[in-house]
Amino acid sequence: MSRYKYTPLDPQTKTTRLLSLRPGSFDNEIHVSLGIMHLTDNDLPDYEALSYTWGSRDDPVDIWVADLPTDADPMGEGQLPVTQNLAVALRYLRSEESTRDIWIDAICVDQQNLGERGHQVELMGDIYQKAKRVLVWLGPESEDSALAIGTLISISSWVEV
User: Fold this and answer.
1) How many helices, marked H, and strands, marked E, lie in the chain?
2) Beta strands 133-137 and 48-52: pairing type?
3) pTM for the whole thing?
4) Which of 109, 105, 86 is closest to 6 using CA atoms?
5) What integer is the mean pLDDT of 91-104?
6) Which residues are CB-contacts of 132 (< 8 A; sequence separation ≥ 6)?
7) Residue 90: CA atoms inside 13 Å, Cβ hemisphere, count?
8) At 80, which helix (H) or strand (E)?
9) How far apart are CA 56 and CA 9, in angstroms?
10) In this structure, is the dihedral angle defined by the CA atoms of residues 8, 49, 107 and 45, taken in order, positive or negative?
11) Residue 53 pairs with which residues in a beta bridge?
12) More confident: 63 or 143
């Protein structure tokens, strides 16, 4: 299959892409759909935003991307390379039964289009603020994960909100 080609976003509007992570088991290939989200809509879909470390760009993993069809644009599809860390995060975040809507900068923003990247950076405050939940991915569990989580719990007990 060919490489995924992004449909350009209108830089005059507050629009971004929203990823729908398709259901599957941990070891299945990763399949996502991309649709357009208008940040000015009063009835935004419930979505999550992912904050994570990109990790090394060496040895990327291909995921399968399809556009959600619209009246203006035909459905496009293809493979998109993502970092190993993001591919692992997607496997852990994926449900076996249902689709999950997530905004992820590395996929929802055409990283090869400098103009779009700049415009989307300007919208990131709105994107994260309007998300139902912000997810943080630091990587898979390791030997010292329990210590790190314990430290965070201890520190959080000192914070008043």
Assistant:
1) 4, 7
2) parallel
3) 0.86
4) 109
5) 97
6) 46, 47, 48
7) 31
8) strand 77-82
9) 27
10) negative
11) none
12) 63
